[in-house]
Every structure is written in structure tokens, then in C-alpha cells.
Amino acid sequence: MKKTGKSTFFIVVAFIALFAVTAVFGIDKLFGDNRTTYVKGVDDIRLGIDIKGGVDVTFGPAGDFEADANQLDAATAIIKTRLSSLGITDNEVYSDEKSDRIIVRFPWQVGETDFDPESAVKELGEMAELTFRKGTDTTTDEAGNEIPSGEIVLVGDDVAKATREFQPDSDGKNYEYVVALELSSEGSKKFAAATAELSGSETPISIWMDNTMVSAPSVKSTITDGHAIISGSFDADSAKRLADQINSGALPFKMETKSFRTISPTMGEGSLDAILLAALIAFIGIALYMIVLYRLPGVVAVIALGGQIAGSIAAITGWFGFMNGSTLTIPGIAGIILAVGMGVDANIITGERIKEELRTGKSLDAAIKIAYKRAFSAILDGNITNVIIAVILMGAFGVPDSFFSKILNKTIFFAFGATAEGVVYSFGFTLLAGVICNFIFGVFASRLMVTSLSKFKCFKNRKLYGGDEK
């Protein structure tokens, strides 16, 4: 194994600094009037109902339709998935089978001064039935509404995945937002057959979302690669919204809003500012304590704690491409604080181990190596229980089709109904993210930094690590 060199400290610090800056400020690019966000920052964090307030809406079947228990459960799961795709994990969604109602509560988004709750509720309750049809023919229903009547080529279930993309238009002169579809194997066969039939004809394949035609492209050739594009004067938000609706699937029945009201925050953003100020003061106090008591390892611990906090922020904003972000709630803040406390504890354990090894007369290099090795088992034992608890909370109170929910609902919670408390999920999410970041920054990164600093002649004094001069 390659030994840790002097440059390692500066590399690790530079990585933590770059990571922290991007996690806090994000990365975006302005292209004309369109702003593309590559990495979300703190300004993109969605605050929970308890901080920001939100919406309380009750949905029910439209008309005289009576939904059964399975249909209500399916609709509840789809609504939760739609909320999750928007990064709204602080939500409450549950069904009342006796009255055929689905109750939904979700928060505002930070910075949404022009937020239209009625429009958001309408989109959430849309059936979102995607169809590809031959031609653009329409007819009218009993209520006089125009509805498509062309032969159906594809439906939403034939789509495996939908994503928003920014690509050149048909002329190749300008860029536009589109929704790219990846079809299932069965959908690919249907689409290939339809495009082969209509290739070169004047009959287009129209694309409909519910009863609204999105686009009607002509068919120039047979398409056999299982991919399709939906274009139609989209901006970034509308393209993402359509992709999310397709991915979440169509509701099993048409819904309408039975009641609607806004919810006031339980504590308000002023209280959030007070909590953040108190947390900053506490962090400064902890930093001074660590530096005074543990000296050079204490300085490294402060840097590692900064990286851990940045990691928690990155997890909430969705900085990591392989996972969605989370809504920031008061329980979520509690999860961050608890994880930071565990990070402090991990650094205290390591600092004390270094002191103990130095007092036994070991060399500085040996003391650091043995101290981190012995401290790791204690830190692991102290954190593994919290990881298990966080996973259980995320599985029990998360989106039904999430990874942890699928596992736990099939093995442990299969006898219980759908859960509703997104705030509990928020606590589990931030706790798990904080514990993982604790291992990355508080254990591995801090070990690299301390070992690297010990290679410098000016940092070889044993007193800098809490030991006596030898």
C-alpha cells in the first residue's frame, strides 16, 4: 500500500473545500433565457411544512365512480411518487376507503413567491394517461369535451423511462427541451410496427397526455431502436414535469379536488434562522474545544466536520446524481445535528486514542496508525445501530417504490397499510446521510490528513498531538 505523503493533506483539504462550495452554492448555466442547473445548492432546498407551510388537499373519484381499495392504494402510491420526483419528501399521503378520499399535504418550495397552489394541485391530481395515436382525429364526449379518437399505438405502460433533454431542434439551428422516451421491449415492437405502417404517409403519430395533444410528428422512416422523442415548445420545468408524470404512471381513475386549503407553518422561517444561528455558535464552540483539547488532530477534526456538514447539505439538495434530494424539516435538522454530534464523538475517540498511544512511549507514526485502527471499531459499533434505525425509518415512511421500502414492505411491514409521515423519513434520511459522511470525512479523510501532517518536520512535535516531549 502506498504511504501517505505530505501533499495528501492539501489534496484532501482542496477536495473538501471544492465539495463544500458546490454543495452550498450549486452549479448552473444560463443559456439565453433558460437556466440549466447541474448541481443544486442551498437555494434549491425545499423547506418542510413545519418551516414553510404548505397545502392540504383532498382528492376523490370524479363523477359517480367508486374506487375500490386496490385502486385507492395504487393512486396513493402514484401521488407519493410524483411528490418524490419533485423532491418533496416531507409529505403526508393517505387514503380513506370509507369515503373514497385521498388526503395530501405537502410544503411550499423555498423562493416560490409566485407559487400557484391550485395549479400545483391540479397537476398532482391529473390522470396523466399517455397515449400515442394514429392521426389527430378527435370526437366529443357526453359533456361536450373534445377527446382523441385515433387508434392507440402506445400507452404509458409501454414506456420504460422518460427523461428531459436539451438538444438541437429539427433544423439544427437552435436548442430545445424535449422528453426522450426509452420504450419497453413490447413497446418497441408496437412502435416499430406503427412507424413501418405510417412511414412516408401524411398520417402523423400524435402524442397525447390525457385529452391534450402534445405534438404530432410525421413519420419519415421505421423506428426500431426503441426510442422516441416528444417535442412541443417545452421549457425546462414543463419538460421535466411531463417526464416525471410519465415515469410515475397514470392514475387508475380520474380524480377531482374535493377540498383545498393552505397550511400555516408551525414555527416559521424566523425560528429556522434562530436554529441555524444557534448551530453556527455551537459549531464554533465545538471547534474551539476540539482545537484546545486535541491540538493538531482537533484542527483536522474541524475540517472533517465541515466536510460532513457539506455532505449532509449535498444529500438534501440532491447533489449526488444517483439519489434524489430530500425536504428539509425540523426532524431533518435534528438528524443532521445528531449525525454531527456522532462525528464529534468519533473525533474525540480518535484524539484520545492518539494521546494514549503517545503516553505509552510509541513513536508518533506508530501512535497515529494504532490509534485510528483501534478507534475505528469503537466508531463503527457506535454508528451501525443508527444506520439500521435510519434505514428502517426510510423504509417504513418513504415512497412505496423506493429501494428500502420495497425490501422492508415485503419482509417486515407487509401487514401494515401505507404510511404517511414524510417528516419521519426526513429524519431517517439526514441521519443516514450524516453517518455515511461521518465515516468518509471523520474517519478516512481525517486519518489521511493527520498522517500527512505528521510527515512535516514542523508538525513532528508530540505535544501537537497531546503527547509529552520525548
TrEMBL record:
Topological type in the membrane: Multi-pass membrane protein
Keyword entries, A-Z: Cell membrane, Membrane, Protein transport, Translocation, Transmembrane, Transmembrane helix, Transport
Oxidoreductase in keyword set: no
Subcellular location: Cell membrane
Gene3D superfamilies: 3.30.1360.200, 3.30.70.3400, Multidrug efflux transporter AcrB transmembrane domain
Domain SecDF P1 head subdomain, residue spans: 151-252
Role played: Part of the Sec protein translocase complex. Interacts with the SecYEG preprotein conducting channel. SecDF uses the proton motive force (PMF) to complete protein translocation after the ATP-dependent function of SecA.
Protein name per its UniProtKB record: Protein translocase subunit SecD
Gene for this chain: secD
